[in-house]
């Protein structure tokens, strides 16, 4: 995440329930989310919302 944030690019995290659903991993995920929220300009969105944003920036909408 930090490198993507420094470069101003997108960070995509794919989570599979059978992997991320363990207690220890949930704690790590919560820590990552809190860290991400502490940075300026971070936006959490769905794939659809990101696609809409890209289309708008490209003048396609």
Helix content: 55-70%
Elements, N to C (H/E): HHHH
Q: Give the biggest sheet.
A: none
Computed over alpha carbons, the radius of gyration is 14 Å
* Strands, total number: 0
Return the domain count.
1
* Structure classification: mainly alpha
Report the portion of residues in β strands.
Answer: under 5%
Number of helices: 4
Mean pLDDT over the full residue set: 93
General form: globular
End-to-end span in angstroms?
29 Å
Which residues sit in consecutive blocks of at least 5 with pLDDT less than 50?
none
Describe the structure in your own words.
The chain contains four helices and no strands. The mean pLDDT is 93. With 61 residues, it is mainly alpha-helical. The chain has helices at residues 2-7, 17-20, 23-37, 47-57. Helix content is 59%, strand content 0%.
Tell me briefly what this model is.
The chain is an all-alpha fold and 61 residues long.
Task: Give me the secondary-structure topology.
Elements: H1 2-7, H2 17-20, H3 23-37, H4 47-57
Q: What keyword list fits this structure?
A:
4 helices, mainly alpha, single chain, 59% helix, 61 residues, globular
């Amino acid at each position: 995440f930090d490198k993507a944030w420094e470069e101003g690019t997108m960070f995509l995290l794919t989570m599979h329930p059978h992997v991320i659903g363990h207690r220890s991993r949930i704690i790590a995920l919560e820590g990552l989310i809190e860290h991400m929220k502490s940075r300026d300009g971070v936006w959490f969105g769905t794939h659809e919302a990101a696609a809409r944003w890209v289309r708008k920036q490209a003048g396609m909408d």
